[in-house]
Amino acid sequence: MGRFILIALSIVAWASAAVGLAAQGGRFNAFVDLLTHLAPLYIAIGVFWLGLAALLRRPVWMLALPGLVSVAAGLLLMAPDMMAGRGPAAAAGAPTLKIIQFNVWGGNPNVDRVVSWLLAQNADIIVLEESGGVGPYLVKGGYRKSCEWCATNIFSKTEAVASNGPEEWFDRRPEVSSATFRDSFGPFTVLGVHLPWPNKFVREMDKYAALKAMAGQRPSDRLIIVGDFNSTPWSFQRQREDADLGVLRRTRNLFSWPAEKVSHNKLPALFPVLPIDHVYAGRGWATVSVQRGPRLGSDHYPIVAVLAPAAGLAPPNGAPPSK
Q: In whole angstroms, what is the distance from residue 316 CA to residue 323 CA?
């Protein structure tokens, strides 16, 4: 390979590494923080340059060094989430709570398949964004809908003891859906949210402010927050908001987008590249499992989380919890 071509490749390699390094500036600037969501891309590009350097064999450092920098930049963003835990351990023999979070996509042509899969999961609570025509079938299948006109719908097997239901919609459509339930350990609240893409700064902050306000009104230990956040855990803004919410994110680098080339997503969907759908729960909950569901016609994969009361959590009356 000619020296000119090698120099040109080296310039491109350093340029890509520089973008990965610039993403670290997301700690201080919301616009720069957009670069953090591409952390896996920096790693993939770095691996490409390292592989090319190994093939060319001479002079290796011109491509290998920026390749190493690019990989390091991506890992620096992703490592904290990779190493983070998922919260406390479950109490022995404690009952479990199964929750499904899924952005169905309003134009999903596979409603029958979506409904069949959801009902087969036998989940206790299902939180849907862009639910389209799925809701009525879930109601027919035995689920109760907490809010008739909310943008994010919460369906449950048991009746909610409180919710921001349809009566509030006539005054102001809720940005966040809320439903409170009661089990043998007392009440717990589920909040469902659908945040805009992070480049829509004003809308994102308005919706997050509504979520933060509602989360702050509930006891955090048994609070559960789920939704399509359109934000990766590598974002410094996401990390700051996580800290504000006072609950632990239980989805750790669980890639959920894209699943299909539908909606506004026209990218190839061989596999998901971004984890933007999340499940949070307070320290009164332990994570039993968190898994990604199958492709169901949306550009998102569903998330299936199983939680259980944390060890040391006592029922409010001091009686043994029901199994």
A: 16
Distances (CA, A) of 147 to 23, 46, 78, 296: 39, 47, 36, 24
Residue type (1 letter), 204:
E
Residue spans per domain, the chain: 3-83, 97-309
Q: How far apart, in Å, do the first and last CA atoms of the chain sit?
A: 69
Other beta carbons less than 10 A from residue 28's beta carbon: 9
Give the span between the Cα atoms of 84 and 136, in whole angstroms.
Answer: 39
Walk along the chain (323 residues) and give the pLDDT tens digit of each residue: 567 778 888 888 899 999 999 999 999 998 999 999 999 999 999 999 999 888 886 667 888 999 999 999 999 999 989 888 778 888 788 899 999 999 999 889 999 999 999 999 999 999 999 998 899 999 999 999 987 777 899 999 999 999 886 555 555 667 789 999 999 889 999 999 999 998 888 778 888 888 999 999 999 999 999 999 999 999 999 999 999 999 999 999 899 999 988 887 777 778 899 999 999 999 999 999 999 999 999 999 999 999 999 988 766 655 544 44
Q: Are 291 and 69 in contact (CB under 8 A)?
A: no
pTM, whole model, 2 decimals?
A: 0.91
Task: Compute CA distances 297 → 15, 17, 34, 195, whole Å.
Answer: 37, 36, 27, 21
CB 179 within 8 A of CB 144: no
Q: How far apart are CA 317 and CA 113, in angstroms?
A: 43
Pick one of 3.40.50.1100, 3.60.10.10, 1.20.1070.10, 3.40.50.450 as the CATH number of 97-309: 3.60.10.10
One-letter amino acid at 83 equals M
Across 194-206, b (16+ Cβ under 10 Å) vs e yields: bbbebeeeeebbe
